[in-house]
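> forwarded from #structure-qc
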């Protein structure tokens, strides 16, 4: 995407990112310069992404979750994130609108990318999220949320679906928007 050999971000990518994110031109240019310094090839591998992500969760096992996050943003399935994919990932996970974040969350939970979420996919992502929670915080969780399996069961119950049914994107977004517990269960926010 764009001219990855150039020392400057292409006008096309710059304009596209200004439209799709809330970042200013100056911020995008600064991010690009930083990105090029850290990733001279113009791409981040899954391993590099996992390494960066793990620094945000030093007390936890972030590798599995980072792999799922990476998959959800590697939109062209080439096994790397280019600058545009990277900035969109930053935007979606930090400053995006709630609906946009939930669209991204759906893609995170849609492990097989078939447009639906199953209970087994919910269990897989809840397990990855649970690994982000430091052991001392796990001890303080409610009884119905103190294991990955219980959290997955609780989240699945909000969608009013049977064990073998599936949830479409609209149902997922509506279900999470209508329930603060569901919103809390699809993410992990470290205790301060």
């Amino acid at each position: 995407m764009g001219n990855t050999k150039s020392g400057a971000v292409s006008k096309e990518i710059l304009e596209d990112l200004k439209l799709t994110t809330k970042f200013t031109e100056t911020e995008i240019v600064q991010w690009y310069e930083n990105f090029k310094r850290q990733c001279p090839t113009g791409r981040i591998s899954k391993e590099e992404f996992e390494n960066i992500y793990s620094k945000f969760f030093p007390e936890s096992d972030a590798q599995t979750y980072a792999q799922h996050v990476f998959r959800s943003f590697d939109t062209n399935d080439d096994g790397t994130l280019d600058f545009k994919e990277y900035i969109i990932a930053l935007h979606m996970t930090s400053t995006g609108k709630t609906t946009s974040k939930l669209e991204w969350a759906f893609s995170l939970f849609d492990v097989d990318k078939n447009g639906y979420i199953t209970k087994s996919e919910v269990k897989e992502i809840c397990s990855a999220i649970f690994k982000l929670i430091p052991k001392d915080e796990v001890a303080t969780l409610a009884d119905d949320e103190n294991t990955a399996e219980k959290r997955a069961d609780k989240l699945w119950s909000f969608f009013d679906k049977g064990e073998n049914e599936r949830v479409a994107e609209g149902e997922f977004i509506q279900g999470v928007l209508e329930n603060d517990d569901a919103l809390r269960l699809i993410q992990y926010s470290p205790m301060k």
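QC bot note: The CA atoms of residues 5 and 40 lie 9 Å apart. The chain has a mean pLDDT of 88.
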